[in-house]
Amino acid sequence: MSKVLVTGGAGYIGSHTVVELITAGYEVVIVDNFSNSNPGSVDGIERIVGRRPALVEADCSDYAQMLQLFKDHSGIDGIIHFAALKAVGESVVKPLEYYRNNMLSIINLLSLMKDFGGKHFVFSSSCTVYGQPDILPVTETSPLKPAMSPYGNTKKVGEEIIRDTVLAVPSISAIALRYFNPIGAHPSALIGELPQGKPDNLIPFITQTAVGIRPVLQIFGNDYDSSDGTAIRDYFHVVDLAKAHVFALDRLFKGNNRKPLEFFNIGAGKGITVLEIVKAFEKVSGVKLNYEIVGRRAGDIEKVWADTRLAESELGWKAVSTLEDALLTAWNWEKRLRGL
Ligand code: NAD
Ligand code: WQD
User: Fold this and answer.
1) Which range marks the domain in which residue 229 is found?
2) In this structure, are 151 and 124 located in the same domain?
3) Closest Cα to atom 13, ligand 1: which residue?
4) What is the pLDDT of residues 78-110, one digit of tens each?
5) pLDDT digit string (tens) for 186-226?
6) Residue pair 124/82 in contact by the 8 Å Cβ criterion
7) How far is the CA of 172 from the centre of ligand 2 (A)?
8) Ligand 1, closest atom to CA 194?
9) pTM of the predicted model as reported, rounded to 2 decimal places
10) Which residues line ligand 1 (CB under 6 A)?
């Protein structure tokens, strides 16, 4: 059984990925400092798969703690690296915290892989590296744009650190998955997204508005170039995203990768407006959403969606869940969180 370290494995995407990894037969060690999660998600994972993964509470940006982890858990063959701070707006206010947390974590993990003989690294990158693309849908070879925030820059520089490392250390190979907008929760409603305070992201804001925690959903801008004037993103189910990590890891373990570092867009490949999301949510939940149109949010791009043909042909991965499925699971998760 191959042993995989999943950093940030208690978080939103990490917890769903751990479920898929265990189901696929991988042995998982989770490391998380619970800065944006809690051990309850590991309980959820255990209830879904019937087994509790090893869990280490530690900070990936702390080299001594990570060294201890590698000594305690020998034979880590692969790493899926989710652990990062991810709030775009907060990163503008606290750039040094973001650079320290996100950059040092990558550097520590790659250094320890080199020293302990780990071979395979999967990195959580983001469509944010493309900024506002000139041509849509965006392909992996589209030019990268200057980052719009320190958070975005940690993904861009993270990719560069990995690129330089795999060139210098031939035993390590890596895949960077550039996620578009993952949404939803596990169909069991035992794990899902846990935003702290007021959500930044659209779907948790919608579900919190629908249960009455938020009085009104503000839609940021209706003067964009789209069918209804609201901005376009590529939303897709987090369980599909979780599975993409298993495909990526399998590819590295089998040596099927064509280059020491490969990039894949991971999305549904379809652009959806904010108002279309609102309408679809109202349909699946039966709840009428209170919303108002306000001005554009600073730093937002107008539209982006993925060309996912490379992931399909090379990884054998494709998003299969519908938007309605994803929204329904997000809704069921919110209701369960609130005891409804
Ligand atoms: P999340 O906050 O739910 O998960 C991140 C986890 O990492 C949390 O459990 C947090 O406690 C942990 N963590 C953070 N810093 C740590 C550290 N130094 N040491 C140990 N644990 C640490 O976020 P998520 O949405 O699951 O995102 C996972 C990854 O995917 C992140 O790298 C994020 O930047 C990236 N990503 C997310 C999205 C999205 O829309 N959610 C899109 C693109 C990329
Ligand atoms: C989606 C759309 C908003 C909230 C962010 C990060 C990005 C990536 C994914 C990690 C936009 C609109 C939102 C609200 C709204 N994360 N919206 N009212 O902006 O695509 O990207 O998450 O890498 O880096 O920037 O996602 O969910 O915040 O917004 O109208 O209350 O919904 O303007 O058009 P976004 P989002």
Assistant:
1) 202-233+269-337
2) yes
3) 83
4) 999 999 999 999 999 999 999 999 999 999 999
5) 999 999 999 999 999 999 999 999 999 999 999 999 999 99
6) yes
7) 33
8) 3
9) 0.98
10) 7-8, 10-14, 31-37, 59-61, 82-86, 101, 105, 124, 126, 179, 181-182
